[in-house]
Amino acid sequence: MDRIFQFTLLAFTSLFTMVTPFGIIPLFSSITAKMNNKEVHKIAFKGVLTAFIIMVVVALAGNFIFDFFHISVNGLRIVGGILFFMSGYDMLQGKIARIKEEGQNFSEFVNDFAITPLGIPIICGPGSITMTMVLYNDAVGAAEKLILLSVIVVVLLLTYIILITSRRLLKFLGDSGNKVLTRIMGLILMVIAVELVFAGLKPIVQDMLKVR
Question: How far apart are CA 194 and CA 23, in angstroms?
């Protein structure tokens, strides 16, 4: 029971922090500022659905991807940890909104905004994909794999709710409140990143010591 609880907590905090729904609010609100509620709901749903499909496919096909590209899980943990640490640091510095907008000319994607860039890479970016693969590989038995898929649904459902209420949330939280939340999530992400790096390094170092 403790193992299942710990895995559920890790999966939720990792994916929710990596998706960063609160960090998406400013960008989503600015893009949908002139849209009515029906259009906002439609775009949010389509974006979340896109992210869900990608994350589930990545989770289920994770082992095939590992085998096909000869990727080790520990290597992915280390790279993922470094990626998460950088993302967490940027969030801690309040740069998340700027990072998501850099290099993206959103006027070119008006019609397909819900799929790209909202669904991928904003909601489901490299970090979310990597974390999903690592968690699914770490899941022990069908129960934990089912829990992970359920956590993905819960995280994306919360993301959908946050997006469709983004205008009200911005008014309630204000700019300062949104920045504080983003920084807290960034700090949590950095802690998870350090744990991932050490989890990946430990077996590699142990194997090196055995060889010697």
Answer: 22
